[in-house]
Design brief:
Radius of gyration: 22 Å
Largest sheet: 9 strands, mixed
Structural class: alpha+beta
Helix content: 25-40%
CATH superfamily of one domain: FAD/NAD(P)-binding domain
Shape: globular
CATH architecture of one domain: 3-Layer(bba) Sandwich
């Protein structure tokens, strides 16, 4: 299906009363923030960033060694970044997709699939252990063909993935529409190894778990500089400082404390809508009783899912890079993107015409050229980092944290032996070249979507080099 990007008047009416705030964060269960660091302290490990990567890092290190003094620093409040703004898809995939993993690490895919499934099991076990109320449900995800050429692609993926331990089911047109009813659906593949979650409540639950095991948390505490000493690292903040034996950086899309990382990651803004709760008749029109996560199979794709109270979250498609790695609250609202998303929603579900959206928001994704998390060390191995999840970090962040801890402790594990862990993505060029290259790539992907998936010379060149760009 070719989506029209021109919103109709009735589409604009659906956005008339939206709150420009993330739905997940607009919650009475949102915890009161902790106070800022205002003194000089010491630690065995400081974790910078209280999103999913930082929370999993702090929790797992204290679980492994309760005597370790662990401090967690957050520039804003827990989950205020991507962790509280995403769609809540908790995928077992560590490689962003089956095909991306096969293209890059075909010899390791069986092991990566195995580790990914164990990682998802570990997330569920932690949620149960700490009684985290976050609407965790193993409903799976369906990737949907909305163009004829995509049908065979999905069928091939279902067949090929079985060889490395996946259990993906191909759904023909009738089977797909029995799951969820849209006139645009031609086929789909159901991946059962994906869960859905309320991401903010998961993050807040992990925050509580960290506090219970003895992690010291300081919010509204931005780290301004790192200074290396012989055996330690000094972390400077606005009002205090910490001397620590080890440092784990989990800042993702935000400006990195290690300048070299700005060559590997670009912040790309993704925009999201949330509907009002559907009525019984509206739900009867679309079915979708299994609460599966859904996504279409274009280069510029939509992802969507239902909430516990019967709303539909609808996001994706646009992936906007702002000049010179632009980030900030002023970029979290984009009326043109919201209108385009709403128009695409009603083209997908015309039977829901008249439904209104209650929330609209945006957030930055830490995008790298291989789409998946990567790791490294600095300052004589006293500092480690994990970033580059490219929008699929809700699940993979736990694995990313485990690898980062392995690296900080100089442990040789099955994780650190992976070529995926040892390698780095190809760097992005600096400005003024970065913006035109990224924007031309986005244009090329859009053209491929509008021409039966045919990739132009530029995209074929990026494919040959193992590079890419993805929403």
């Amino acid at each position: 299906m070719q989506f029209s990007n021109t919103p109709r008047p009735e589409t604009l009416k659906s956005l008339a009363d939206v709150k420009l705030t993330p739905f997940w964060l607009d919650d009475h269960q949102r915890p009161e923030p902790f106070s800022a660091l205002t003194e000089k302290i010491t630690a065995d490990l400081v974790v910078v960033g209280a999103g999913f990567t930082g929370l999993w890092t702090a929790l797992q290190v204290k679980q492994a060694d309760p005597n370790r003094e662990v401090v967690l620093l957050e520039a804003g409040e827990t989950a205020i970044g991507a962790s509280g703004r995403n769609g809540g898809f908790v995928a077992s995939s560590l490689t962003h997709s089956f095909q991306n993993g096969m293209n890059r690490w075909p010899k390791e895919m069986s092991k990566l699939v195995e580790l990914g499934h164990k990682n998802l099991d570990g997330i569920e076990a932690t949620i149960k252990q700490y009684n985290i109320d976050c609407d965790f449900i193993r409903s799976g995800e369906i990737n949907i063909a909305t163009e004829e050429y995509q049908v065979d692609e999905l069928r091939e993926e279902a067949e090929e993935s079985a060889a490395v331990g996946e259990h993906i089911q191909f759904l023909d047109r009738d089977q797909m529409r029995a799951r969820a009813n849209s006139p645009t659906y031609l086929a789909g593949i159901h991946d059962p190894s994906v869960a859905l979650v309320n991401p903010a409540r998961l993050a807040w639950g992990l925050r509580r778990a960290c506090l219970e095991v003895g992690v010291r948390l300081f919010e509204h505490t931005q780290v301004t500089a790192l200074e290396e000493r012989r055996e330690t690292v000094i972390l400077k903040t606005q009002y205090g400082e910490i001397e620590s034996k080890r440092v784990a950086l989990a800042t993702n899309a935000f400006p990195p404390l290690l300048k070299r990382l700005s060559f590997y990651v670009v912040p790309v803004y993704d925009y999201v809508l949330m509907t009002e709760p559907l009525s019984k008749s509206q739900r009867d029109e679309i079915g979708w009783r299994g609460r599966e996560g859904l996504s279409d199979n274009g280069n510029q794709f939509h992802y969507y899912r239902t909430s516990e109270d019967g709303r539909i979250l609808w996001g994706g498609y646009d992936a906007i890079y702002y000049h010179n790695n632009g980030v900030g609250p002023h970029l979290e609202s984009n009326p043109a993107s919201f209108a385009r998303l709403a128009e695409h929603f009603f083209q997908t579900f015309p039977q829901l015409t008249g439904l209104r959206f209650t929330h609209a928001w945006g957030g930055a994704i830490d995008t790298c050229s291989r789409y998946t998390v990567f790791w490294g060390k600095a300052y004589g191995d006293k500092v480690a980092y994990a970033l580059g999840y490219t929008g699929l970090g809700v699940g993979a962040s736990r694995f990313g944290a485990q690898v980062m801890l392995d690296l900080l402790d100089n442990k040789k594990t099955e994780r650190t032996s992976l070529q995926m862990v040892k390698s780095k993505p190809f760097p992005f060029p600096p400005e003024p070249f970065r913006s035109p290259i990224i924007n031309f790539t986005r244009w090329s992907l859009d053209q491929a979507d509008r021409n039966a998936g045919k990739r132009n010379l530029w995209l074929r060149t990026l494919d040959a080099l193992g590079l890419g760009f993805d929403s």
